[in-house]
């Protein structure tokens, strides 16, 4: 018998709703064929697919990162404004695709407003210039009688968009990135850009381009940029065809968040930086490249399994437990590419990972509670696919078979427990011990499960992995 013990007085911190953010990139059918499909019977007059919009609205995404990803490092935003038919069609060197530019800044901002999400724009630090980046901030946020603010007004938008979050480039540490930089050149350039961009709008919040959270790149970026930025970003994707690796690899993020947090604390102390700097995990998901369906979409169309849903639920629990450090996270990506939402010409499919995302964003409460879990533990040896640095986690074990996060509201009258049973072959019976708190009445249990860890949803079987709900009557403290 496992035991989950809670104490409403042991509060870890306030959960930032921005951990339920997402990311959309001009890649595959994420934007075109996902978010927009001009002329489609399921699109509105602006070309936005209404079925996709409804599925995103149900996820209550609070912040949306755009336009890349790798795509942004060769993207010139000025190609994507003004009359759509006059916009240039360009070659996209990131994904070897043709970019029509019919979805640009004004379309993205409109979409964010429809969703009630805050925009987070990543800047082109590959082929882009500082002047271009400053002009983008002015176009979005300028309220004076100036050229770029007036271009925005001319394009139909009077009020500034007031974009708060700006990313200082994407994954510039990688040679695959257009305009790849050494860390020394990156920090010098990012410092220069940060100072100049804040002259255009001193209220913006800047995100430094980190790596996996513990690399030398992260260390140097944190040491040099903490005085100039508000966030340090981390990107980690995990995924394996070994069941235990797949569901346990998200714990790598424990390492990333602990390491980044320690480095940020140190850098702030040494440089006497008074403003807070937090971590944004602005690309995360289960991504298992050998499973990609490249025939259909050319790039990264994942078919997510129940086991991936368990991994995603574990990620979300980790985000809650690290609420003090992690202030934003962006699922990569939202539609069609590695995504919880998949489209064909006229239908939307909710993949297995959609369900933990929706439950977490809908039900997670304001304060994270410390939870003690007493259950079976798994010793996990690194598998042969552990050659990638992000796939070595044996040192972090043993791992609890039940992964648990708990949140409550300010009045302590509500409790939400997220429990991930990672045993693939059996239920785990558990006692939930509420200490001195008492439950009166009914609790609701929402359960995500399926026939096998490998079960996926498909257009033929859209609810093979789904959520069932039942009421449980509880009295007392257990
Ligand atoms: O999300 C897919 C890609 O993964 C992004 O473009 C890039 O930033 C990351 O490597």
UniProtKB/TrEMBL annotation:
Residues 282-478 form the Alpha-L-arabinofuranosidase C-terminal domain. One of its GO terms (biological process) is L-arabinose metabolic process. Transmembrane segments: none annotated. It catalyses: Hydrolysis of terminal non-reducing alpha-L-arabinofuranoside residues in alpha-L-arabinosides. InterPro entries: Alpha-L-AF_C, ASD1_cat, GH, Glyco_hydro_b. The keyword Hydrolase applies. One of its GO terms (molecular function) is alpha-L-arabinofuranosidase activity. Keywords: Carbohydrate metabolism, Glycosidase, Hydrolase. This is non-reducing end alpha-L-arabinofuranosidase. It comes from Actinopolymorpha pittospori.
